[in-house]
Amino acid sequence: MKIDIHCHQIEEFFHDALKSLPGVTVRVNPDRFSYLIKDGKTWLPFRPQMFHPDHLIREMDRKGIDMSVISMNTPSVYIFEQRRRIELARRLNDSIMARAKRNPDRLRGFATLPLPDAEASLEELARIADAPGIVGVGIGSNLDGVALDDRRLEPVWARISELGLPLYEHPMVPAFAEHLPGYALPIRVGFPFDTSLCVTRMIYAGVFERHPGLQFIVAHTGSAFIGLLERLDHGYQLFHECSEHISQPPSVFARKNLYYDTCVFSKSFIEMAVKELGADRILFGTDYPFIISDPTYVEALDLPEEHKQMIFSGNATRLFGKRFNLGQT
Question: Is the N end or the C end of the chain the one with fewer CB atoms within 10 Å?
Answer without folding.
Answer: C
